[in-house]
Specification:
single chain; four-stranded mixed β-sheet; YbeY_CS; 16% strand; zinc ion binding; hydrolase; Endoribonuclease YbeY; alpha/beta; 162 residues; 5 helices; cytoplasm; Collagenase (Catalytic Domain)
C-alpha cells in the first residue's frame, strides 16, 4: 500500500511520514488481500479550522475532531465484524484520513499519553474505519478496540483505552 502524507498545519510535533506509513501498513496488513498491493491511502494532517470545517460538512458537528475517515469505496459488512469486501481491484484508493494536529496534541497531554502513541492510535483507528470497522454499538466497539490494541502493541504502545 502506498501512503501519502500531506501536512497542512504546523509541523511541530507531527511524526515523520515513515511513522505514518508503518502505522497504516500495520493496520491494513491483516485485512487486505495480497492482490491489493497497489492500494493507496492519503493522510492529511490539518489544523483546527480545517478539521472543524470537514467535521461540520460531513458529520454536522461544529468542532474540530481528532481523526476523520473518508473511504474511497463502500465496503460490505462481513462475518464477525470483518468486512467481507475490500476495495475492488479497479479502485486504487483505500481513502483519506484527516488528522487534526492540535486536537491530537491536546488529547495526548490531557490523557497523559506519549504524543507518538496517540498519533499512532489515530492512524490505526482511522484506517480501521476505512476498512469498514466501526464502534456504533458495544459489540462492534469492543471488537474494533481489541484490533487497535493488538496493532498498537506491535509498536510497544500501551492500550489507549486503559
Amino acid at each position: 500500500m502506498a501512503v501519502t502524507v500531506q501536512v497542512a498545519s504546523s509541523r511541530r510535533g507531527v511524526p515523520h511520514a515513515r511513522s505514518f506509513n508503518r502505522w497504516a501498513q500495520a493496520a491494513c496488513a491483516p485485512y487486505l488481500p495480497r492482490n491489493n498491493q497497489e492500494l493507496a491511502l492519503t493522510i492529511r494532517v490539518v489544523g483546527a479550522a480545517e478539521s472543524r470545517k470537514l467535521n461540520r460538512t460531513w458529520r454536522a458537528k461544529d468542532k474540530p475532531t481528532n481523526v476523520l475517515s473518508f473511504p474511497a469505496a463502500p465496503l460490505a459488512p462481513g462475518k464477525n465484524g470483518v468486512p467481507s469486501r475490500f476495495p475492488a481491484k479497479e479502485y486504487s484508493e483505500l481513502g483519506d484520513l484527516a488528522i487534526c494536529a492540535p486536537v491530537v496534541a491536546r488529547e495526548a497531554k490531557e490523557q497523559g499519553k506519549p504524543a507518538q502513541a496517540h498519533w499512532a492510535h489515530m492512524v490505526v483507528h482511522g484506517v480501521l474505519h476505512l476498512l469498514g470497522f466501526d464502534h456504533e454499538n458495544d459489540r462492534d466497539a469492543t471488537a474494533m478496540e481489541a484490533r487497535e490494541v493488538n496493532i498498537l502493541a506491535q509498536f510497544g504502545y500501551d492500550n489507549p483505552y486503559a
